[in-house]
Amino acid sequence: MIETSIGAPGNNDAGASAAGPSRARRLFGGWSANLVLMLLGISQQVLLVPVFLHFWSSDLLAAWLAVYAAFNLVIVADAGLHARALNRFLAFKACVDCDGRTARYYDAMLWVYCGLVAVLGALLLIGAYLLPPAGLFGFGATAHFDAAFVLISLGSLLLLPLANLPSALYRARGDYGRMVWLQSGGMLASQLVQLVAIVLNGGLLAVSIAYVSVQLLLAIYLIAVDAPRLYPFLRRGGRRRPSWRWSLGQFRRAFPFGVAGATELALVNAPVLLVSAFVSERMAVAQWGLTRVIAGLVRTLCVQATLPLAAELGHDHAIGDKARLRDLYARGSVLVTLLASVTVAALLPFWPDFFALWTHGSVAYDPLLVITLLIGSSAVAPSILALSFAYYSGRGELLVRTKGLQLVVFLGLSLSLIPTMGPLGAAIAIVASDLLVQFGLLTLGIVGGVLRHPRRHIALLAVISVLVVVSGWGMGAVIRWLVPGSGAVHFVIECALWSIAAALVASPLAIKRFRDALIAAIPR
């Protein structure tokens, strides 16, 4: 990566611009922080499941997965304001009095967020009273499901002003690594508190309180202590409430980003709720929730890899540096494709063994469901960088057109396929909407506008994905055939042999001349 600071040239007082860390340090700092956050996400969604199953039945675990999905789904209430604020903070970097304009906008948006949370919180309480969530999602026999659902949803709403607004500023100012480290600390503390709650109490409500309370405490620290200390200019922003006209204007300009965010969250979390509503067999619901976790982790891995890249790409776009933008985007898309392909190639042969150990054999394994979700995750990996860059470059019109269409396609396929095919129908709906719309329209539009040779670049990504997935899957199948058996020790041996074989295949990349030749051959 090119060793330059993120600050735009010209007269501005954007803080740590010229004296800030280099691009390479920011990227590697962001990736390292995101790696820790991703591992903690795996711990939350994978490692804690055996603990939950030790204290809970599969029905109660299914209830927790539905509540957890609701927590993540409520984030859609942000309505695109986070992306709107991020783009404004980036735009201010090329202006005179950057810090002053940033502080005033930050304070005004805080008022907007608080008003939004107050209205939506009231609607949530009224809706839960009129339509109890337990009856709506088929958990009428689960104790305290309504209370846990409402509590965790309200907590997610409160996180919008407390976390999303400071996060936008941190990302725009090149401090996204710091933000993620704080989030990681909060997630680790939350998991420890969940373990205490389930051991001492064992109830769904207690675990829900443990999960959301620590997140809220971290967010309060972030907005009240850390952000003003890191950016002292925030203290002079002023506390005047913005006009109704200005506030409504922010929602109007944020609408395209809100549609895109709603679609992303729907693709990740709504399938759990849809399967819960349409599939009467609770075991199938638990099976879907657990299987969906692994595809979600592949997607999360790609998202976390693209976020530091997108911040740098957004800066290059804001100052009009097309050469650096083109070079970083081309390398970044290859990196994300390789990352997803290697992960899927490793998961496909060994996931059955891990699934049996993970669930203690209490949940059935569906190979077709797993293959559909993982192959789809690998195929759409390049589109995740395109989506992230669209957020950071203010491409609202493209976002609302493509993501709105994707949401329609996904819901249409889900409502028609889930009642007849069950969880597999939900998997097909997710993968088909990703391939047809997010990759077919959004990615091609972004790549065509950024790179000089978009067709050659897309072809290269397709070849990389197919070669890596097929070879890695085949290598894993050979290892399973050569080393038959079962159990935790056998699983570790399989993974170790695959890792050694993969390292040997990739060893030529350690040669700098060979690596530089491959990078130079990437179509830009």
Overview of the structural elements:
It is a single chain. With 524 residues, the protein is mostly helical. 81% of the residues lie in helices and 0% in strands.
SSE topology:
Layout: H1 23-55, H2 58-73, H3 81-92, H4 98-130, H5 133-136, H6 145-172, H7 176-200, H8 204-230, H9 244-278, H10 282-319, H11 322-359, H12 367-379, H13 381-392, H14 396-421, H15 423-450, H16 454-482, H17 488-506, H18 512-520
Please tally the helical runs, counting DSSP H or I stretches of 4 or more residues: 18
What's the end-to-end separation, in Å? 15 Å
Low-confidence runs (pLDDT<50, min 5 residues)? 1-20
Number of strands: 0
Structural class of the helix and strand makeup?
mainly alpha
- Report the average pLDDT across residues: 82
Please bin the fraction of helical residues. over 70%
Instruction: From the alpha carbons, calculate the radius of gyration and give it in angstroms.
Output: 23 Å
What coarse outline follows from CA principal-axis ratios? globular
Sketch the major β-sheet: none
Taken in chain order, the helices and strands follow as HHHHHHHHHHHHHHHHHH
Beta-strand content estimate = under 5%
